[in-house]
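Thread: "does anyone have the structure for this chain?"

Original post by V.I.:
We have the sequence but no experimental structure in hand. Need at least a predicted one for the grant figures.
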Amino acid sequence: MPLALTLARGALTSPLKRNIHAGARLPGARLVEPGVRIDPVRLAAYSHLCGFQQADPLPLPYPHILGFPLTMRLMTDRSFPLPLLGLVHTRIEITQHHALRPEDPLELTVYADELTPHRRGTEVTMVTEARMDRNPVWESRSVYLARHRTMRSGPPDGPRESTPSLPLPAVAEWQLPAGLGRRYGAASGDRNPIHLHPLTAKLFGFPRAIAHGMWTLARCLAEADTGQAACVRAEFKAPVPLPTTVTYATDGTAFQLRSGDRVHLTGETSAHPSSGRPAPSKRSS
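Reply from O.Q.:
Generated one for you, tokens below.
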């Protein structure tokens, strides 16, 4: 099913899933797509838009883009307990075991791992795995929050390890155009209405279109030059309204994207000791 139709199905089934209860259970299905081939034109458009100076080796977040249609199929199924509309991508952890090439044939698997109570609702962890010759080469764990009334109370959840609490040194400033969401949607296939236009964003409570969280992460990783990094953890803290100007800050490992005193994204990168291929060389400045 085309991704646009999958998103439409999610919109139609969301009102049927508003009554989230404590006994909600996740579907046990694992969606598998073998022999995934990467479209070089779309990869080039994605790499250019996100600031990667080369597409070989594969940009670290790109398998997430490849697995996104499978994720949407699972999350829009009637057996999935949370409504698609209103789900907020709050954090992601990516581990790459081997540097990947655009020509590598990948087998993708997507499944829902766990439901977790949250003071503002319920969180779900979605897992995407990539394999070559049955061996794991890449995986991600994305956490999404469905907001609803709960019996929990108290202060916000404590800070996570992937969330630097102190301001980091500013390194770059980026001017983000109003059409960034539409361009990223075309390159990635993720055409969520909140990213496309002020009119569609207002339907979901946003005064303006907002940047894709996965674009902000990819842009930070491209700027960070993650030559030796094979692991990244990031937390999406606040939406980035378009158009705007943002500041990328880093100490070499931890990074932030902020505008003024408002932090939009925090995270950190690290090397993975079991990588079996040589790490990509650092790009020229």
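V.I.: this helps a lot. The longest strand covers residues 106-118.
O.Q.: and The CA atoms of residues 124 and 261 lie 29 Å apart.
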